[in-house]
Amino acid sequence: MMKPILTSLLFLFSLKAIAQDSTFTKPEIKQNSIYAELLGNGGIYSINYDRIFQLSNQVKIVPRIGFSTLNDVLIFPLEANLLLSRSRLSKNFFETGIGLTILKPLSGFSGQLLTINGYDYHFDNRAVNTPLMIRAGFRHQKPTGGLMYRTGVLLITGDETLLTIGIGLGYTF
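Structure (tokenized):
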């Protein structure tokens, strides 16, 4: 009676050992990126962090938060982007998303208007200005990490509408 049980247990443990063999596991995909973006929805520049969440082999969702400051105004670009690719291990993506940019004047800000990249942000006694942004572009990010870059066209809407570009360069880990 003990011999069939022991044989069965040894068989099950050997299957578990095979399943843990690195040749059978999926490679780890680096999910975090830190990058600087020029001319994007963060104004002249922004420092950003985003994280990839895999929805399927071809679709990833990427929330982003950034920070910038200009003329005593704090700027926080927020986005939710989709990365579309051919496979799970692709390094090139079509990137599209939607977001908003939160602008908060500090006590030293004396104006009612701030112009960034040709877009006029009107504060008019409001504590915060939040224009909506839509992005479409290209992103290069290796699944194993390292250098990443992105570029895109952005449509910023709010008190007025502006078409601009964003160029980002950073590191994935």
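The chain is about 10% helix and 55% strand. Residues 2-19 form the longest helix (18 residues).
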